[in-house]
Amino acid sequence: MLENMGKPGGPRIVVCCGSGGVGKTTISAAIGLHGALSGLKTIVLTIDPARRLADVLGIGAFRDKARRVPLDSFGEMPGELHAMMLDAKRTFDHLIERYAPKEMQQRILANRYYQHLSENMGGSHEYMAMEKLYEIHAQGEWDLIVLDTPPSRRALDFLDAPQRVLNLLGHPYFMKLLRPRSRVGKLGGRVFGLVMTPFMKAISQVVGKQAMEDLVSFFSLFNDALLDGFENRAKAVESLLSDPITAFVAITTPRAYPMQEAGFFYRRLKERGMPFYGFVVNRVHQADSPADVGMLFREIRSKKLLPPDSIRDLETSYHWYYNLAQSDQKVIRQLRRTTGEKVPVSVISMEDGEVCDMAGLRRIGRGIVQGEAAPPREGTA
Amino acid sequence: MPTEYMHKEIAQLLSRRLIFVMGKGGTGKTTLSLSLAFAAEKAGKRVLLAETEEGTAIGRIFGQTEINETPIPVSDGISIARVLLKAEMAAYTHFHIKSGFIAKRITGSRLFDYLATATPGLKEVMTLGRLWRWEADRQESGRPVYDIIIVDSPATGHVLSLLRLPKTLIRMIRVGPLVSQVKQLDALLKDPDRTALALVSLPEELPVKESVELMGIARDEIRVPVRMFFLNGVYPDIFSSRNVENAHGMIFSEEGLGRLRASVSHRKALDAVVAAARHQYTRREIHEKYIDYIHRAVSCPVVEIPFFYTNDMAVGDMRQIADQWVAPPGAPGEGPDA
pLDDT by residue (tens digit) across B108-118? Predict the structure, then answer.
């Protein structure tokens, strides 16, 4: 999978999606590292507030600034790896600064609805990830951009995010309903003499008058130029995402819930005709199952090679682990059955230890591209 | 944790009226919610297991695709329900607007939808309002309909904004019919005898770090401290406590393994067995590191949930977890040995 990324005709943007806790950040970093090691000028974007990528890559907690990841340990190499942590709030603020008239900017940034929407609204992080992706792509300096999507409950949230944000901010219905009325006597961001219809009065009885006033004042701050700016941008982002230079990859583990999410994501992308490149099944338990395991234990027992307790422990451990590996394989077979032969599935083995170094990332990156990655098992080769 | 002590701690946790289960995605919130529900049921309580709008896991586990605010009994002591924002908003509006006609127009309007999404705290107050009404539900005898309400929350951020809500809302709305309700809600949430937070995490570096951060926020900022910390998916201690010498020497050291390999004829089988053993031994070592870390970092009781060797935990698995948590009747404090 992704063998041709960054090459002519191949994808230049890789979007990693999946539900929370499947190792998206690690996989994104591994794909990025693989790109860099094959000579590409690569940047990995993550929006995770827990600074996970920073931990894995050993870079500081700088927000919204690309940092070069030192790859000295790999010797001379033609590519580069950069990483950037996105700050949703700041990206939103940048947008306001770009499209809003100077005199309005401060008032928008200070409005309580704006603050709430930009930080807490469902989809705002997803929207901002897309926005930043577009901006960085437009810089034109990167051979490969890898985006680690925000941990959304539904892997697909971010696809709808641009439209959702637009619906909330600039729906003509609300514009008509709220904006003309709020032109009356604005002073210092507050609205005076708000004319409310009986209908609006009734609503404000439910949500409170203050909330209503804040909302009206929020809408009054958005002019058409600002909304056009937002809308054009959202359309540009959408067309970038459906362009063949973008590759979507679904990350999952063999567990039931993330698998369901990944399958759902795949079907939705297919419906939309968007460029899906394959599944990465992460943390897969692998166990060989030679036919003579039973005989091995009989041999160890009869020759008294280990104390009886140790033999029992070994038997238990093998039995449990083998069942788990079988269960993982079953889930992967199911995935392959439902999606068909043509969809690539890369299987990444559960590592014995923790993946917290470049060598581990490199192993995983190679595994994603080659389709399988067995963890190193020294001494048993 | 000694069994007797754990039974006591769990019993204390389950003596609350309202438990919020929180944790990052993929750490096992639904597993914990269900296990707590089964434990409470086993302790003779009537349980309401609730999920918020975004959640779908609990309904699915019990084969119910569309659950709503009307609780459905799924076992002797457990009912399940789901908080749906629009239904709550509608009920609330009908309560406050005298004219049914206007109320209907309001709840059917797009402005209403907009406000529901965009008004800070409104979504949370509706969710909390529903939980609060469930809490207040009484039978004719005066006994609560539900002894305990366990909330499987979709995301960490969501629980935090739920608990942050009273402050935000009072600041936003200042006056109006909501405010008096908010103050009562606040009293329920801040009452340590009635409300508790349970946090679930995995014994891995990042989840553990994030949980400790989260506990700090809950304690210092929200002022609803985490009462119990659950570590989910802890690998069993197959090798380290018994026969440490043997396990280390004969299986895990290159020298010991070399000797063993030289003495057996089924070498491929040995490699497979040793690979499985090494994986679990290494995992267990890592898990122990984070268990120790958590014990040092948090002041509340820490309960471990064992790793299940499967990809899709069944209801029976969670009952099994719950069985470990509750002392059998007639033998208070005398738990079954695992």
Answer: 776 777 676 66
